[in-house]
Design brief:
Keywords: DNA-binding
CATH topology of one domain: Tetracycline Repressor, domain 2
CATH architecture of one domain: Orthogonal Bundle
GO molecular function, one term: DNA binding
Mean pLDDT: 83
InterPro entries: Homeodomain-like_sf, HTH-type_Tx_Regulator, HTH_TetR
Largest sheet: 2 strands, antiparallel
Organism: Atribacter laminatus
Strand order of the largest sheet: 1-2
Radius of gyration: 18 Å
Low-confidence stretches: none
Structural class: mainly alpha
Protein name: Fatty acid metabolism regulator protein
Number of strands: 2
Strand content: under 5%
Helix content: over 70%
Number of helices: 9
Distance between the termini: 47 Å
Amino acid sequence: MVDKKQKILEAAKKIFAEKSYFEATLEEISSSSGVKKSTIYYYFSSKLDLMVGLIEQVILQAMEKVKDINPTENQIERVAAIIENLFNFIMEERELMTVFQRAGYDFLHHHNTLEGFKKVMDKFQVFRDNFGDTIGNIVTINGLIITGKDFMRVLTSSIWGYCMDESKEGKIITEDKKEMFKEIFTAFLRE
C-alpha cells in the first residue's frame, strides 16, 4: 500500500511535470493525490519543500541506479555500466526528469527558490564525488590520468545535459543514444 507521503510525491510529480513550480498549486496536488491539503503540510512545510523533496527523489533514484557498479571491473566495462544505468533511469523516469528540468529553470530564475535547489544539488555533488572516488582513476589511451571525480562530473553533466536538450525538443531517449554515449566515453580509455 502506498503511504500518504508517496501519494503526495506522485501527484506532485505529475502536476509539476505539466506546469511550472509557480503555476502549480497545493490544491491541485491535494485533489490529484486524494490527500487533504492540511495533511500535505504535515509532510512538507511548503510547496518549495515539496518540490525539493521531488528533486531529492530524482537524485536518490539516479544514485541507486549507479551505486552498485563493480569498481573492480575493467574501466571500459565500468564506464559502460555507469552509462547503461544512468540512461536506463532517465528512460524509465521521464516524468521525474521533466520535473527536474522545470525546477532547474524555475529555481535558477527566482532568487527565493534558488537556495533550496542549491542545497539539493550539493547533496548530488557529494554523492557524485564519492562515487568518483569509488570507481577510481580513469587512464586514457594516451596515458592521461583522470580522477574519478572529474570523470563522473563530465560524464553526468554530459548525459543529463544531452537528455534535457532532447526532452525540451520532445524527443524520446532511445537505446541508440545510450550506445552513442558508451562509444564516445569508452573510445579514449586504455583497456
